[in-house]
Design a protein that fits this description.
alpha+beta, 36% strand, 2 domains, eight-stranded mixed sheet, 2 helices, single chain, globular, Glyoxalase, 2,3-Dihydroxybiphenyl 1,2-Dioxygenase, domain 1, Signal recognition particle alu RNA binding heterodimer, srp9/1
Length: 139
């Protein structure tokens, strides 16, 4: 299990990732936009969201840092745009930790299957710390 940093940006994620690629001399990041994701006809994607970064990552000195833009209309605060991401191939352990963290907190997305993960969820714990949980099979 790993705990990783997830940085959110207010529409300037591509610029930030390019900057960090240069600063840390990393490989060029593969970027997935909101427009490239499977669309739900019940919730049409706003035009202004299509080119925003849904997810990308860089390896910096052996650590994975993940990045995304906030979705239009979602709250964003400079300085508070960091979440901790628990990435594990142990779904049971993830579920136990998620259930404990959500006590007194605010669940943004219950643990569930998504197109990118067998089990993903996010919450803010009772201390205001943002967490994401993602099941990822070790290869």
């Amino acid at each position: 299990m790993a705990v990783e940093v997830y940085l959110n940006f207010n529409g300037n994620c591509r610029e930030a990732v390019a900057f960090y690629e240069d600063v840390f001399n990393t490989d060029k990041a593969e970027i997935m936009t909101f427009g490239e994701t499977p669309q739900n006809p019940d919730y049409p994607l706003p035009e202004e969201a299509k080119d925003l970064v849904m997810h990308t990552r860089l390896i910096v000195f052996g650590s994975r840092i993940m990045f995304s833009d906030t979705f239009p209309g979602m709250p964003f605060s400079t300085g508070n745009n960091v979440t901790l991401a628990v990435v594990s191939d142990d779904e049971e352990q993830m579920r136990q930790a998620f259930d404990k963290l959500k006590e007194g907190g605010n669940v943004r997305m219950e643990l569930q299957e998504t197109f990118w993960s067998k089990c993903y969820g996010s919450l803010t714990d009772k201390f205001g710390v943002e967490w994401q949980f993602s099941h990822e099979v070790n290869e």
